[in-house]
Design goal:
Layout: E1 6-11, E2 15-21, H1 24-28, E3 37-39, H2 42-54, E4 60-64, H3 66-76, E5 81-84, H4 91-102, E6 106-108, E7 120-126, E8 132-137, H5 151-155, E9 157-163, H6 170-185, E10 190-193, H7 197-214, E11 217-221, H8 222-229, H9 234-244, E12 247-251, E13 257-261, E14 264-268, H10 281-294, H11 299-313, H12 329-333
Helix pairs in contact: 3-10, 7-8, 8-9, 10-11
Length: 334
């Protein structure tokens, strides 16, 4: 690819993750679907936080959001990126900006100074089986607009990466379309992740349309793919998604992933792991893949690197690794 300042231009919800390890009963007592993401208003999320405090669960903060986690994995692989997401002029917003920059990712979109909406937050509850249940208050992130897409920065990037979570609100949805259209206009490959099964349930037809009209690369996991295609036959799902775009990556937990490249499907095995927390695994996988695609790896090599980064993430509590990973690259992809 032509030399550009950034490997990836990421667009997504800017969410501060509030991480907690809990038991199964804690989740069972909440009005949520275990293992999924539930949107909440501020009061509902506050009730979850109060319950955590009452039960003396230690909490850990991290700048999050699906695409943001992906961008950090790109930086930890040795790549470069810029992230577009909206935060408020509050404590969480200040933390978010500083944390992203400390992780090696430029953070774009000015903080909103005059608003009653707080920076978005997600309470991530991880149970002993490593499953994560998310309670999300989107806050100011729902105001991300087409005008927030910095076209000049986008033009300086090799790939545009947009998260499906943005599709749930009208204004960010318009921001998604703007990013796709500008990427297409300037010859920049556009990558899209389905993000979550609840989005596929609601927007499968939209996702199919934008995949056909705008996307070069799709990321999905096996469950999302089955929902998207309406069949339990994973091979059929991979083939169908592979017909929509030039390149698709379908993850399947410990089994690794499948790569559909111009109609040819290849299975790329995963790595042996002892899972502690699955939060961020798919995001890390996408980061590893996007780094590979923008730094000279073949799609299969990129998928292997993505599998490796994801395997390391599920062995820790939280969505991100604490260390730089580039020293492992050669041994993993050779």
């Amino acid at each position: 690819m032509t030399h550009k300042k950034y490997d990836v231009f990421g667009v997504g919800n800017a969410i501060v993750d509030i991480l907690a390890m809990v038991d199964d009963d804690f989740v069972a007592d909440l009005p949520v679907h275990r293992g999924a993401m539930t949107l909440m208003d501020a009061a509902q999320q506050a009730e979850v936080l109060v319950k955590l405090e009452r039960n003396q669960h230690p909490l850990k903060l991290a700048s999050g959001g699906s695409a943001a986690n992906t961008m950090v994995a790109i930086a930890q692989s040795g790549g470069t990126g810029i992230y577009s997401g909206k935060v408020s002029h509050d404590t969480h917003g200040e933390f978010y900006r500083a944390d992203m920059r400390a992780a090696g990712i430029d953070f774009e979109v000015e903080m909103a100074a005059e608003t009653n909406l707080p920076t978005g937050t997600c309470v991530v509850l991880t149970t002993p089986d490593a499953e994560r249940t998310m309670c999300t208050h989107l806050g100011i992130s729902t105001s991300l607009a087409p005008s927030d897409i910095d076209v000049e920065r986008l033009k300086q990037s090799k790939i545009a990466y947009i998260e499906g979570y943005l599709w749930d609100a009208a204004q960010p949805r318009a921001g998604c379309v703007e990013a796709f259209e500008q990427a297409n206009r300037h010859g920049i490959p556009a990558a899209f992740t389905f993000s979550d099964g609840f989005l596929v349930d609601r927007f499968a037809d939209d996702f199919r349309r934008i995949a056909r009209e705008y996307c070069d690369i799709i990321f999905s996991n096996a469950a999302e793919s089955r929902q998207f295609c309406g069949t339990d036959d994973l091979e059929a799902c991979i083939a169908e998604i592979g017909q929509l775009v030039d390149l698709a990556f379908i993850t399947n937990s410990a089994d690794g992933c499948y790569v559909a490249h111009h109609g040819t499907v290849t299975h790329v095995p995963g790595f042996p792991i002892k899972p502690i927390d699955t939060v961020g695994a798919g995001d890390a996988f996408a980061g590893g893949v996007l780094f590979g695609l923008t730094n000279g790896l073949t799609p299969i090599q990129a998928a292997r690197w993505g599998n490796y980064i994801a395997s390391r993430v599920v062995e820790i509590n939280g969505p991100r690794l604490a260390q730089d990973m580039r020293q492992h690259l050669k041994s993993i992809v050779s």
